[in-house]
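User: Before I run my own analysis I want an independent prediction to cross-check against. Here's the chain; please return only the structure tokens and, at the end, one sentence I can use as a sanity check.
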Amino acid sequence: MSVTIDVKGLPAERISVVPSPLAELGMALHALSEPGHHPELQGWVTAVSSRLDPCLADRLCEADFLWRTTFSDVFAPFAGLPGRRGLPGGTLAEDLDLLDKLTDEQFVDAALEFTCHPHYTQQSAGPLGDPELRRRALDLAAARGPVQERFARRLLAEPPTVRAWFRQLVLDCDEAFFADTWARLQPQLAADARHKTELLRRKGPAEALSSLSGAVSLDEEAGIVTIDKLLVGRGSTGDGGLILVPTSLGWPHVMVLHRYDWQPVITYPAKATRPKAPTVEQLTLRMEALAHPARLRLCRHLARSPHSTSELADAHGMSAPEISRHLAVLKKAGLITSCRQGRYVQHQLDLAAVSRLGSDFIEGVLR
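Assistant: Structure tokens:
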């Protein structure tokens, strides 16, 4: 499973690395509503939440589906501009001016993304122009609760009013907490963007893209960017560009905007010092390897000390070939290590790999 972006024929000069204050505000709102996704931000979340005006907190709850369960494309309006070569604004006000340039159809479709995902990569009239999509949007909004249903009905009935409401909400968040946060983060993000741009210039797109995250790679021959995620999606740059947006608040998420007729965007964690996370395939192998009761029993022995195949066979009442097959599965999953000592090969559980499995799994499903 992965998201792919077709970049065939895309020149390096149409790949841009640019921070976006509006996108980072979206990440900030997500972290505030889902602090469990971002344990590193616990101090910041606590500080902001403790001084948040109750009225503003209530308004944030009204539309939290825009950033809580998904990351709405309204936070990347530059991607929806005609020509598909727009760039993020240098300030929050400039990003909001770009938001004003989206059509009502684009704004509504992006804001109701949580209800219209099957049509994300297809040409569609959207809920404003398609009665069936409109009905489906309202049904799914109702399933999420009365607050979301009221918001969806208001959005479908009065897009300009809701757009103005959203703009004011963003400005109030900026005044309440984000201006200080952005002032602290912007230099870091700008430095990361300069570094990635220089890497792109000196070593090419493949090197630059792989530096974003262990989950991102480029097949130069096929002209395909692959983002390793637990979902399937396809996008294309066509005659437009590709935007890379660094975030300081977004880890472990690697967000991919691949909406039909919008410019593709990859939002990646700016911190480059994290250990490489396992791929979705590696996570699957590890979960499957540990799902077998015989292999779990083997892990109990191998966690205590190294054992040879014959020792394990005697201990478990199994044949050596059976033990070897189970060990091969564990080794392929990266859960055991083996080394030769004299005539025997000793196997041992990789405790570091197993201890990371929970956090690796969480990072994989949140990526």
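Sanity check: The longest strand covers residues 242-247.
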